[in-house]
Design a protein that fits this description.
- The chain is α/β, with parallel strands linked by helices.
- Helices cover about 45% and strands about 15% of the residues.
- It is built from 14 helices and 15 strands.
- The strands form five sheets. The protein has a four-stranded parallel beta sheet with strand order 4-3-9-10, sandwiched between helices. A four-stranded antiparallel beta sheet has the order 5-6-7-8. Strands 12-11-13 form a three-stranded mixed beta sheet, with helices on one face.
- The longest helix is centred in the C-terminal third of the chain and has 25 residues.
- It is elongated and about 95 Å long.
């Protein structure tokens, strides 16, 4: 079955056919790093990581580009408030973002361009637009350059907006020819940091938000590429403006537009500007592991809105622990094995517009079959279920034996230490049970439980897990 994806531009689910056989180019709008990341940002990362992993699983070579906006109005505003260089704030938050992406087992992008590193490419694109009559410099003492929206007949097609219906903003630049025009280049302003500018043919300034993505996508993926991704909230004006300026410059640009729904807290999307955010650090401190958060963020269909609640997150965490528990119990019997091809039903779900909700239902069905096999001591069936489950979890970035979740990165693996300490406690418990000192044995078990370690007595001896048993 061919992968089918919902394309925002055509408002339909389309067969995905790569522009170049065997290769896929994806551009994902990344984060504006004016502050530390929240789990709304992480939903985007997980959703497109799953898309990328599925494409890789099907044998395609993927060039995955995810940009970082490291200069814009919000970052400059933060710089003024904090009395710090804008680039210091951007870099600090980039590091936090990379930390969280890594914690959730999001594969590093093929390229991660910074807006500040591609000003020359933006100049080239702006000059092309001016030459073609689609952009104009204000001139005089002002270095601003605007895109002429009415010069591009296709404006509004991506988002379904009619330019005639767009409202005039309350505060606008009188130098614009039309209130719908948007900035490609912003001249230096008196109240902005003195180091937040670059020379240009039109005067000192910095790029507008929209031009950076068109320029960077072109730089790393060419004039035309396969998939452009981002949140639904970016469809207008950001992605609409990207389409307009890219097409007006003669570029084919994106062939598919894949947008994910948002993660809401209350009635509003999670946003730093609204002050309603939850970050990974606070969740980990509350007892949620990063792998459990990834499971929670990746379980709904990517086009379904997530209404965050602590209860729903903890239910998802318990669901993942059930899967994880089977994987570990099965591996104790037949070894970890080597993941095989995913079941056909799982592949069908993933090819159906990345239906991760249906795909995870196949995972849980296979886990139930595996638990039945464990109860029956059917090693062949146990092995079959285990390798199938691990193959599916690998596509979703959730395999418990992935080095990321085993703590194998950077030499900070504490699992052997924990293993040794728990083994020592279990040995003391076994000695207490041998001398029929049930109170001492129960005390060891209870102390482990208070530390978040669950002990289960099995025919093969005691086994332990982190978190609740189900």
């Amino acid at each position: 079955m061919t992968l089918r994806l919902y394309d925002t531009a055509t408002r339909s689910v389309r067969d995905f056919v790569p522009m170049t056989p065997g290769q896929v180019g994806i551009y994902l709008c990344g984060v504006t790093v004016q502050s530390s990341p929240h789990i709304g940002h992480l939903r985007s990362a997980v959703n497109y990581d799953v898309l990328r992993r599925w494409l890789l699983h099907t044998g395609l070579e993927v060039s995955f580009v995810r940009n970082v906006t490291d200069v814009d109005d919000k970052i400059l505003e933060k710089a003024g408030e904090q009395g710090r260089p804008f680039w210091a704030i951007a870099y600090e938050n980039r590091l936090l973002l990379e930390r969280d992406y890594s914690a959730l087992n999001v594969l590093p992008p093929t390229y991660e361009p910074l807006a500040t590193g591609h000003v020359m490419e933006m100049h080239e694109l702006i000059e092309t637009l001016i030459e073609r009559g689609h952009a104009y410099p204000v001139g005089g003492d002002c270095a601003d350059v605007y895109f002429d929206v009415l010069s591009f007949s296709g404006y509004g097609a991506l988002s379904g907006q009619d330019p005639a219906d767009l409202r005039r903003p309350k505060a606008d630049d009188p130098a614009k020819r039309d209130y719908r025009d948007f900035a490609l280049w912003k001249g230096v302003k008196p109240d902005e940091p003195r180091d937040a500018y670059w020379p240009s043919p039109w005067g000192k300034g910095r790029p507008g938000w929209h031009i950076e993505c068109s320029a960077m996508a072109r730089r790393y993926l060419g004039d035309e590429f396969d998939i452009h991704g981002g949140g639904l909230d970016l469809t207008f004006p950001h992605h609409e403006n990207e389409v307009a300026q890219s097409k007006a410059a003669g570029l084919g640009f994106a062939r598919y537009w894949v947008h994910h729904a948002l993660l809401n807290l209350g009635d509003s999307k999670m946003s730093k500007s609204l002050g309603n955010v939850i970050d990974l650090t606070s969740l980990v401190e509350s007892g949620i592991r990063p792998v459990e958060l990834r499971y929670y963020l990746g379980s709904p269909h990517y086009r379904s809105r997530i209404d965050y609640s602590d209860e729903a997150l903890r239910e998802a965490a318990a669901g993942y622990r059930r899967i994880e528990g089977f994987v570990h119990r099965a591996a104790e019997v037949v070894g970890q094995g080597r993941p095989k091809q995913v079941p056909p039903a799982f592949a069908e779900a993933m090819n159906d517009d990345l239906n991760t909700s249906a795909a995870l239902a196949i995972v849980h069905d296979t886990v139930r079959e595996g638990n039945t096999a464990l109860a029956a001591d059917d090693e062949a069936a146990i092995r079959g279920a285990l390798t199938a489950v691990r193959a599916m979890l690998g596509v979703l970035g959730l395999d418990p034996f992935d080095e990321k979740w085993r703590g194998g990165e950077g030499g900070n693996d504490l699992k052997p230490v924990v293993d040794s300490l728990v083994a020592l406690a279990l040995e003391q418990r076994a000695q207490a049970r041998a001398r029929k000192d049930w109170a001492a044995a129960d005390s060891v078990r209870d102390q482990l439980k208070n530390a978040g370690i669950q002990v289960e007595d099995t025919p093969a001896g005691p086994r332990w897990t982190v978190g609740e048993q189900h």
